[in-house]
UniProtKB/TrEMBL annotation, chains A, B:
Pfam family, one: Hydrolase_6
Cofactor: how bound: Divalent metal ions. Mg(2+) is the most effective.
Active site residues of this protein: D24 (nucleophile), D26 (proton donor)
Positions of Mg(2+) binding: D24, D26, D246
Binding site for substrate: K221
Tree of life domain: Eukaryota
CC terms in the record's Gene Ontology section: cytoplasm
EC number, UniProt record: 3.1.3.41
Catalytic activity: 4-nitrophenyl phosphate + H2O = 4-nitrophenol + phosphate + H(+)
Gene Ontology molecular-function annotations: alkaline phosphatase activity; metal ion binding; phosphoglycolate phosphatase activity
Protein name from the UniProt record: 4-nitrophenylphosphatase
Organism encoding this protein: Ephemerocybe angulata
InterPro entries: HAD-like_sf, HAD-SF_hydro_IIA, HAD_sf, PGP_euk
């Protein structure tokens, strides 16, 4: 059963126990374009106490630089090295874990942020924002109209609002090749836009998973790949690290898989009724607070 | 174990036992643009013997009229009432089984053949070939840019080579509505083009299945919906009916679900190695012949 924290003393004890704090962003730090009350004070408090802070988002359409711009716009202090998006994770996974030789290429279903992160890791890409592949024109496999590039050794798929049959068909052709890697930035089925739910990155890779009859390596939460990439970049002790999030099936699962403590906030997707009563999720966080902003009271303990 | 037929007497016995013959088309009657040797003679022989012949295809991009044009082009005699495509099946399912009131509408991910069949059944459609939805322009749910039609009561999804984020997002928005029907013409993961495999109708509906977390009603083989629609249109005795196909997981499963005899031909997808040896499929047809054309020898028995 999750421990519900609500007093300054409880918040202070939580701070004492954890040196590294991993945060999901949307629904935790902000909602849409509004910072959640008290969040900037809590982050300031953590930094004053020499805690390490890390921001972990499944957003696959933005590079870390672009993600950082959102922090700045909202007045939330952050450094690019503290921000991990699933596009960046995919790029580091390909360059470091797969150690893809530099002459090989990646076919991309995804947007400019994903391309930027791949290019920053020295990875050559095809597809993505290439105008030739952003089309609703008919596609066929006639070698006179399309010659597959023999150097493509991986297909990476993120959220792509210009997804189309040409991209899906090319990605499918490449991914069927013996030894071709199949990578998804994340498997979120939907994403919450300002006006409601839209299909997410997991829905964009669903045609490939179905046509190929196989699952991709997943980079985003709850996959451990994201934590492996963070571990490769910064040092932290899992026993003194806590993951803060608003989603049980991504954030809290991610922390649990990684052997981290987990803190659920109720300012995002998860409601009180999802964690209590007969329909409660089997995923139980270690701690629950109403809002991350509440932790600013720790200073008063 | 499947019975392998190879003599004139065996073919004749098969003809004697079955009054109604259901045929898959591609890989059975023809391959690409070539009629398989002997097939027109076999169809002529069946008609002379007063057998009922029915053509059953999962093709969801063509109306029955357009399908019929292919028969004519290849010199294979057929009547429009003998041809059942998954687009037609979806239309009849909506108009007859769901009995959708005429003032309600269907949102379509699919091509003109699917629209034609829906319109022929008096069903109003949105999406499909509407130029407004065949776009790679950004889409959002802001009610100032898109107002959902309150009369949409079903989403139907077939193969659509102009699939895009606007169509997927609108279909997703509609399909989430309480009571909205979710229908797929068929779930073929791929389809064999002249130059290789491309993503099939099942891959086009995969994003919706994943985002919604639910499966559609499926109209094409191996679903029983196709047979229900045929039953509603023609009379036949399942005990004296045989399904002829080249795919174990669609054609042969379809026949077995429906309590029909099943005949596998080896001129299409399924190879000898798929039905014999240690890796044989668990789906076992009643009979196997090398080619449908072989049955013309029955006349010599």
């Amino acid at each position: 059963m999750a421990q519900r924290l609500s007093t300054a003393e409880e918040y202070e004890a939580l701070l004492e126990k954890h040196d590294t704090w991993l945060f999901d962003c949307d629904g935790v730090l902000w909602k849409g374009d509004h910072v959640i009350e008290g969040v900037t004070q809590v982050l300031d408090l953590l930094r004053r106490r020499n805690k390490k802070v890390v921001f972990v988002t499944n957003n696959a359409t933005k590079s870390r630089k672009t993600l950082l711009a959102k922090f700045k716009d909202l007045g939330v202090q952050a450094h690019v090295d503290e921000v991990y998006g699933s596009a960046y994770t995919a790029a580091v996974y390909i360059s470091t874990v797969l150690a893809l030789p530099k002459h090989l290429k990646v076919y991309v279903i995804g947007q400019s942020g994903l391309e930027e992160e791949l290019h920053a890791e020295g990875i050559q890409t095809l597809g993505g924002t290439d105008p030739a592949d952003n089309t609703l024109a008919p596609f066929n496999l006639n070698p006179e109209s399309w010659k597959p590039d023999p150097d493509v050794a991986a297909v990476v798929c993120g959220l792509d609002t210009k997804v189309n049959y040409t991209k899906l068909s090319k990605a499918f052709a490449y991914a069927q090749k013996e030894g071709c890697h199949f990578i998804a930035t994340n498997t979120d089925s939907t994403y919450p836009s300002s006006y409601g739910l839209l299909p997410g990155a997991g829905s964009i890779s669903a045609p490939l998973r179905y046509a190929l009859g196989k699952d991709p390596v997943v980079c985003g939460k709850p996959s451990g790949t994201m934590l492996d990439v963070i571990k490769a970049k910064i040092h932290f002790d899992p026993a003194r690290t806590i993951m803060v999030g608003d989603r049980l099936n991504t954030d809290i699962e991610f922390g649990k898989h990684g052997g981290l403590a987990t803190l659920l906030v109720l300012t995002g997707i998860t409601a009180e009724s999802d964690i209590t009563g007969p329909n409660a999720s089997p995923t139980v966080p270690d701690y629950v607070v109403q809002s991350l902003g509440d932790l600013r009271l720790a200073d008063k303990a």
